[in-house]
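Closing statement on the nicotinamide-adenine-dinucleotide sub-project.
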Amino acid sequence: MDRRLEGKVAIVTGAATGIGEAIAHKFAKEGAKVIVNSLPDDPIQDVVDAIKKYGGEAVPYAGDVSQEFHAQNCVQTAITAYGQLDILINNAGVFLATAETQDYPVDVFDDTVRMNIRSAFLMTKYALPYLQKSRGNIVSAGSEAGFNGIAQNTPYGGTKGWIHSFMKGVAVEQAKYCIRANCVCPGAIDTAWTRKEKGPMDSKMEKMLIQGTPMARRGTPEEVANVYAFIASSEASYVTGALWLVDGGVTVAKGAVGSDTPMWFRSEPQGELRLEHEQEGLDNKDTQTIK
Ligand SMILES: NC(=O)c1ccc[n+]([C@@H]2O[C@H](COP(=O)([O-])OP(=O)(O)OC[C@H]3O[C@@H](n4cnc5c(N)ncnc54)[C@H](O)[C@@H]3O)[C@@H](O)[C@H]2O)c1
């Protein structure tokens, strides 16, 4: 199963923490050379060093890819370092506040749209000429919230719905260049975002997200990274325009079905990747819980 991405060059945005960290490690383990992008004060170099320690290849790119300059330079880093680009993973995103819509701060709305939407657009735009040469593919971070919306962070759910439509459009438009474009759509994953002590969710939201999930637990970043690796690999050569759920069943569930799931079935798998920054994604950001 290993080395499905041998010889490929991949950019992973938002790769210093959480799901992105797991994708970067997983891709390196599968043989890809990885450009580890994240914000300058994220632990990017740590992730690069860890990948190298475990025998992989990676280079850092520190910069906010919602800015045109950084999106262009991030793509250029791949070309300068490795001469090609095969895979773009639009993983960067933020979850900065919980508040009902009437109370949602306008500046947080603007930041959420910029970080979640503008970054995916710019990275896709500047990566496409190289992906057309390599017949590569794009996988973007959608979400269960992009299907269903999410109460108390309605703008966030909206940004994920946008990503779903954006990738579908790119899939149809770019098929003539042999490019595939898909979304991986996680449910509640065990990063800073779903931990009340680490981010803006309160204990009620935290409890509800587990009760509403048939598997009655969060997913791990590695469980999500495993699906990214499959979709980005040639094993998924006929998969394009797909919104691929990795959500423990929450999207199809109705009500508090997780309460019936036995405790023994609820433990997170240990996995194989050695990750160090799974829950640090919001450490360097201002978050708000408005009631
Ligand atoms: N955690 C979940 O439950 C969940 C569920 C569904 C979808 N997702 C999606 O998965 C992705 C990763 O989420 P996570 O939970 O790992 O969060 P995280 O906060 O741990 O990771 C996101 C990383 O992206 C970085 N980042 C944000 N904006 C950036 C930008 N403009 N340029 C460069 N780096 C940027 C952040 O600093 C952070 O390091 C997001 O797109 C999110 O929408 C997460």
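Helices lie at 18-29, 44-53, 68-82, 106-134, 144-148, 154-174, 203-211, 221-232. With this model delivered, the sub-project is considered complete and its resources will be redirected to Aim 3.
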